[in-house]
Amino acid sequence: MEVAEGNETQAHGVHSTTYREKLSSGEKLWPWKFGLRVILLIVTIVGIGCLAWAVSHSPQFDDYNFSEDDSWALPWGLITLPCSFIWGVVCIMVLLIRTRPIHPGSAVGVDLVLWLALIVTTLFAAVSASSISGFGTGGYIQDVEPDGGEYYQAPNGTWVYNATSSYYDSYYGSSSNTTQRECDPDFSSCAAQDAYVNQLWHLMSRLVGVEWTAVACQAIAVLLHFALFVWACCDTHARNSRRTRKDAEAIAEKIIRDLKEKGELVPAVPMQQARENPIMTAPGGAQMQEHYQPGPS
After folding, report:
1. What is the rounded CA–CA span in Å between residue 70 and residue 144?
2. Each residue of 58-70: pLDDT tens digit?
3. Residue 193: which residues within 8 A CB-CB, separation 6 or more?
4. Contact residues for 189 (Cβ-Cβ < 8 A; gap 6+)
């Protein structure tokens, strides 16, 4: 009975390592890195959703005015943001499954590529949002029609096509009476195109806001990846320093062990023993003993 109680007390006295302690043993600052990765996942999800929505609702004119076209610059973020999301998931899964963070050298390389790539796609998205903001400014939409016509905003807020174009007439030397309307081939009829232009106008304020939100998400992702990149560089430096120190200690121990085996290294003796029986090491490992004569006190 007493033996059983003793075993039970001993079992309670043994400290079992918790999951959180295992994580802390692998990386003391893992909660901060984990938090940054989680924030990055949220930001990338929001950014991907905004970009996907904006791309699906962007203007669909083949000959659209280049200064107000976002189709060439907007979709690139749909490459970098998903890559960022996948990398964040990999880092979090490695931390949770292996109870230690991913190798800092891998984080240095991947986070470096991602924050540099996101800088480019962020600038593209900013150009896209800025250019699309000019849609319909000044009360007219220019260069929508192949024939050079323009849409003008009526007093009731509706956009109405006007085949008269001063730029078209002055450039080609034609009269406004001879200007014939040619609708965009992407639409089944001119009425369908007119309806699309008005629908796009009502959607424009939301489209601009969504695109600027995507820009903000990519900018935040750049900052987070840069912070994680710098952190990984510091971890890599510390890891290499520890490895170098361990290698140096191992080499030093081997040298000392070899010297002891050859008899070329005499272990240190206490001071009192050295006073009573001093020992000198002669060349070749031979030891000589001298009689110690204390001097006058």
Report:
1. 14
2. 776 554 444 456 6
3. 144, 183, 184, 187
4. 183
